[in-house]
């Protein structure tokens, strides 16, 4: 493959400069070792036939689709940078570490190879033989001959008997299979994009005995895990360009929500002036843990740009906004109300019980702000753990694990 190396290096450096600036705007710092790796590995070698500027755009490059759905991609640089940063921070560096990457493509595996150095090791596993063949070819072309590529369903142990300091999952998971915990050394770290209440966060979880305890989390989105651990996501049409995202075990009648949406809109505001850095992704998980037991269904609203522009809906974030559905009310977190540099949060509801539903959502927002905008913390236990052995918090039962979410105050207060 012929590559214009000077242009490639320039684009790569520009991409990394932008990643550093974007992370700084979020209050994050890209670890120096991750920066060095990103400046070293030519991303275009993992995206053959992609024009060079696209290979260095800050977005995923889809490499395989099933119908409309993307099932494999070279992950977006900002996500890779944030997740590698989570791993480096949680393990205090990756030099000499032994790593399992779940979901191959080659690019992230080669960054990991740079990070662990010759004393460490990287195994990458993918369920899809087309992906592993491609990843093997790309890694060989780029000169990363020591990365081991395995084709298997990573729901099960990948190299039986082996333990890793880091397992980094690069597909969206609904659950944490016991094999992921058991393949970690004690103190080892699992970085995993995990869906809880329909909201995906990349969690860095450290193993402590049979438990996993969160170290950090970031908002993210990924193609879904396939194979034995697959858990379907469904989209229901409720208006032109407006959808509800549901987990496979949730039931909502879309016609009922469509009917409710035809009724006038009620808006409620929390009544705060919040600082721009307030992490609203944390508020969304807070709302989920509070509303899930109070409304019939807690769901995620998504909308196309045209539906927002034409005023059909005014969600906080059109790619995924908390919403509740019950008899007589459909409610969601609304777009922000800006006054100068500060903003307020609010809710919109439709239906005969709209005012009560909007008021309830907004009261939970007030409680979050008054508690100093706490951040979620996650502890993961094996499925057979008895209730009495779980700590206080919101318990979410999955197939192989029991998750407990709690909220801890953040240092920076959003309230002014
Ligand atoms: C976003 S891509 C991986 C990107 C890659 N890490 C990179 O370097 O950019 C996600 C991959 O996860 C794989 N995958 C999904 N479910 C899996 C499973 N159960 N076991 C192993 N791989 C899986 C998919 O086949 C897909 O190729």
Features:
416 residues; alpha+beta; Rossmann fold; 2 domains; 10-stranded mixed beta sheet; 7-stranded antiparallel beta sheet; 11 helices; globular; binds S-adenosylmethionine; cytoplasm; S-adenosyl-L-methionine; EC 2.1.1.77
The coarse silhouette is: globular
Secondary structure tally: strands: 21
User: How many separate domains make up the residues?
Assistant: 2
Give the helix level as a range of percent: 25-40%
From the alpha carbons, calculate the radius of gyration and give it in angstroms: 22 Å
State the CATH class of the largest domain: Alpha Beta
Bound ligands: S-adenosylmethionine
Q: Can you tell me the residue ranges where pLDDT is under 50 for at least 5 consecutive residues? A: 411-416
Spatial strand order of the main sheet: 5-4-3-6-7-8-9-19-21-20
Average pLDDT = 94
Largest sheet: 10 strands, mixed
State the end-to-end distance: 56 Å
User: Which superfamily, in CATH terms, is the homologous superfamily of the largest domain?
Assistant: Vaccinia Virus protein VP39
Corresponding CATH architecture of the largest domain = 3-Layer(aba) Sandwich
Continuous helix count? 11
* CATH fold type of the largest domain: Rossmann fold
Structural category: alpha+beta
Strand fraction equals 25-35%
